[in-house]
Amino acid sequence: MVCRTNAVILALAVGALAPLRAQEMQDPMPSPQAMQLQAQRIAQERPREAEAAARAFLHVIGLQPGMPAAESRLSELDQLKHEMPDAYWGEVGQRTVQFDMVQNLARRDSLRASLVTMMFGLESMTRTLQRAYRFGSDAQRDTYRPQLEKLISTHFDIENQLRLLEIKDIERRLTDVRAEAQRRHDKRAEFIKFAVDDIVRDAIRPR
Q: What are the angstrom distances between the C-alpha of 3 and each of 58, 69, 124, 152, 198?
């Protein structure tokens, strides 16, 4: 079963890309629900190619600032495969779907792609700690909670960066719309003349 942590962070990451979805309606970003369903399908069907994609994405995450090296994350993934196969395939499903999303995003906006990649990396680390917390002793849990707080704090900082980019996009589009409205206002008579000329020419054109 996909944990709630996944759904929450997926919703935040995809939601932060709303302006980009609006501009790219011919190839919109997937919804969090669609991504979850796809990840669950991969976890159930367990295609071998998904493992390669998941591992490739861990390498991409490891290249981002502040993210742990891919080798350590791959080692954790291998351990999970041995100890908790169902959880392992859940991770593979998530990484595969997220990798596809980031690759599509990178073709449009490399900065957003980098930020979203870091968010997904933090989400993976959060789930690792979540599993450790579930099976840890009281003393271990006391050390895990501050680590979780640090991860979520960093996640919120990145989310805020995405929101600031969203605000800038909205402001830029608003400026463009206002400029176009002013241009049409200034050239109102000219636009009307051109429109009437077209109507008249069409009316007298031989049929």
A: 19, 24, 11, 16, 61
Q: Contact, 42 vs 93, CB < 8 A? A: yes
Which two three-digit tokens encode residue 203? Answer: 């009316």
Cβ atoms of residues 2 and 36 within 8 Å: yes
Whether 153 is in a domain gets the answer yes
By CB atoms closer than 10 A (0-12, 13-18, 19+), residue 184 is exposed
pLDDT tens digits for range 52-108: 999 999 999 999 988 988 998 999 999 999 999 999 999 999 999 999 999 999 998
Question: Does residue 200 sit within a domain?
Answer: no
| 78 part of a folded domain | yes
**How many domains does the structure of the chain reveal?**
1
**pTM of the predicted model as reported, rounded to 2 decimal places:** 0.74
